[in-house]
TrEMBL record:
<dbReference type="Pfam" id="PF03767">
    <property type="entry name" value="Acid_phosphat_B"/>
</dbReference>
<keyword id="KW-0732">Signal</keyword>
<dbReference type="InterPro" id="IPR023214">
    <property type="entry name" value="HAD_sf"/>
</dbReference>
<feature type="signal peptide">
    <location>
        <begin position="1"/>
        <end position="31"/>
    </location>
</feature>
<dbReference type="InterPro" id="IPR006423">
    <property type="entry name" value="Lipo_e_P4"/>
</dbReference>
<dbReference type="GO" id="GO:0009279">
    <property type="term" value="C:cell outer membrane"/>
</dbReference>
<dbReference type="InterPro" id="IPR036412">
    <property type="entry name" value="HAD-like_sf"/>
</dbReference>
<keyword id="KW-0449">Lipoprotein</keyword>
<protein>
    <submittedName>
        <fullName>5'-nucleotidase (Lipoprotein e(P4) family)</fullName>
    </submittedName>
</protein>
<dbReference type="InterPro" id="IPR005519">
    <property type="entry name" value="Acid_phosphat_B-like"/>
</dbReference>
Length: 280
């Protein structure tokens, strides 16, 4: 099932929405039912991920900061202290699903699509994030353990797929002791707290604020989510290292009320509203 395919009538509904919001009077009629790939709502975000040197540089920046944090923690460690650890998310932090986004766009989808994602994940066609492997190898060399905590659900093989993704890229600590896969919740805090009882977390890595703390999981309220982040502004680039993700994540839940909305006229209208609303 392709729940997010462009639907007949969507173009007309979007045109009406645009007319209402933007005040444009003479938008061209779009009678074609076939989706126009060039009108895909995801194009800017995905083109940026695929091509921008800035996108890749942000990973180097994040992993350079993480390495500095590890070095500082090692220098401050005293005999008898708990061992040091790094807690990391997987997708869009360590593994970049760039071929998935290419497939999604080519298939005419303009919103995240679970069936496409679920079919693609087991294929081990991920790209390692720039600087990630080198950083984790550095941690391993220094005796700092890395724990992967991810939220995924591809059915009974979810764990094996996730472990396979890490192993396929030759990442350190790709083993059951260091990988936790949450299939029924995106709340990572219970597992992180469990690990923090035995290890001192040096740094948390993620592309979603929810990778750091559950308090940022706020649906349908963009200003509240921004305010929650601002409370912790001193943590970014220190305890929390954040990577860029303009295509998916809980920022979308703040806009749409859910992380993976279907491609409907209502979702398009919310996207447009999000784009024209200036928050100061
Ligand atoms: Mg992620």
């Amino acid at each position: 099932m392709f729940k997010n395919r462009f639907m007949p009538g969507r173009s007309a509904a979007l045109a009406l929405t645009l007319t209402g919001v933007m005040g444009a009077a003479n938008l061209p009629a779009q009678a074609e039912e076939k989706p126009d790939p060039a009108a895909n709502a995801l194009l800017y975000a995905v083109a940026w991920k695929q091509t921008a040197a800035e996108y890749r540089a942000l990973y180097h920046q994040g992993y350079n900061i993480a390495r500095d944090r590890v070095d500082a923690a090692l220098a401050a460690q005293k005999p008898g202290d708990k061992p040091l650890a790094v807690f990391t998310d997987m997708d869009d932090t360590v593994l970049l699903p760039l071929p998935y986004w290419s497939r999604l766009i080519s298939g005419g989808h303009a919103f995240f699509d679970d069936p496409v994602w679920d079919e693609w994940v087991p294929q081990n066609d991920l790209v390692v994030a720039p600087g990630a492997k080198e950083f984790f190898e550095y941690c391993q060399e220094k005796g700092v353990e890395v724990f992967y905590v991810t939220s995924r659900d591809q059915g009974p093989n979810t764990y094996d797929y996730a472990l396979g993704n890490l192993k396929a890229l030759g990442l350190p600590y790709a083993d059951p002791d260091h990988l936790t896969v949450l299939t029924d919740s995106s709340n990572k805090e219970p597992r992180q707290q469990e690990l923090a009882a035995k290890y001192t977390p040096v740094v948390y890595l993620g592309d979603n604020l929810n990778d750091f703390q559950r308090k940022y999981y706020i649906k349908g309220d963009v200003p509240a989510r921004i305010a929650a982040m601002e409370e912790d502004r001193a943590e970014f680039g220190r305890r929390f290292v954040l990577f860029p993700n303009p295509t998916d994540g809980h920022w979308m839940a703040a806009v749409f009320g859910e992380s993976e909305p279907a491609d409907t006229p209502e979702a398009r209208a919310k996207l447009l509203e999000a784009a024209v609303t200036v928050l100061k």
